[in-house]
Amino acid sequence: MFDFWFEYKTVVPKGYVRLLGKLATLTDAGIPIQFFVGNHDMWMKNYFEKELAIPVYYEPKTFIRNGKRFLIGHGDGLGPGDGGYKFLKKLFRNKFSQGLFGVLPPAIGVGIANYFSRKSRVATQQADEKFLGEENEWLIQYCKRKLSEESFDYMIFGHRHLPIDFTFPNGTRYINLGDWINYFSYASFDGERLILQSYDPALDHMIIRK
Questions:
Q1: What contacts 121, CB < 8 A, 6 or more positions away?
Q2: What's the whole-model pTM score?
């Protein structure tokens, strides 16, 4: 949802006020929302929980809906490989690092963060465009390991930016939600089955992917 998010004590990053207002409208209407922290917004504290009544999760979480078990998370830093990012993730989540960054004036801090955010998107854009195969998709490998420990009906993640619907031999489905930038993709659960689909802004209607 954010290119960058840092919870300053008195500042909300420019460009997100209307979004935060819409989230507040939804939760005020009794619509529950859960937020999973990712690589662009890992510096969250309790603003969402206090101001918007939205619980914030830093790790994948299990949900049970209509007897179906869901494992849901953002997806960054999971599975094998990506050692460089995993190191940075530990560094950035360190409270001392967060304190040092918070000392910077917002204009400088946000400017630096947006610069690296753009570089990250450019660097990963080509890799995000195609399915790498079962053995090379880190989140599929992560799901395999989790399935050796416990069972799930659906394992849902983001981060990958590519819509993926992969079924394991036991029937568990790994769903990657894709993104709302290139694919306008999302998943919906009607109580019986989960569907990966897209919104076509030109036609103003939904497209079922599977």
A1: none
A2: 0.81
